[in-house]
Amino acid sequence: QVQLVESGGGLVQPGGSLRLSCASSTIWFRLNDMGWYRQAPGKQRELVASIASGGRTNYADSVKGRFTISRDSTKNLMYLQMNSLNPEDTAVYYCNLSPPTSRYWGRGTQVTVSS
Predict the structure, then answer these.
(1) Which residues contact 33 (CB under 8 A, 6 or more apart)?
(2) Cis before 99 (ω within 30)
């Protein structure tokens, strides 16, 4: 059974950086388009960034120029490098397929941007 596990979240001051990781339990990971999503309190979950199996990337307008999605298929890992964080980035961050599949939502990792 495929599992996706997010890690790397935490509390960071505005302007700071974090790197999130998404680990897959199988090599299935490298064959699929993947994405990072986030859900802030009281808001719907939204796509933050996606990366195709071939490496093409796509970003939400709100994070362009600040976030970078990448993947290391040899290790079944996907990353989200987040720079210049601001309080509006506070949310639980999840990884999933792109587009997402309900059965693969994990627990996510909390990112809190606050002074």
Answers:
(1) 50, 51, 52, 53, 97, 98
(2) yes
Sheet holding 46-51: strands in order across?
10-12, 109-113, 91-97, 34-39, 46-51, 57-59
- Convert the pLDDT of each residue in 50-104 to its tens digit: 999 889 999 999 999 999 999 987 888 999 999 999 999 999 999 999 999 999 9
Residue 31, phi then psi, degrees to nearest 5: -90, -5
Q: Residue 34 and residue 63: Cα distance in Å, rounded?
A: 17
Three-state secondary structure of 4-48: EEEECCEEECCCCCEEEEEEECCHHHHHCCEEEEEECCCCCCEEE
Question: Over the stretch 38-52, which tens digit does the pLDDT of each residue have?
Answer: 999 999 999 999 999
Q: Tokens for 90?
A: 């506070």
Which of 24, 44, 60 shows the shortest CA–CA distance to 92?
A: 44
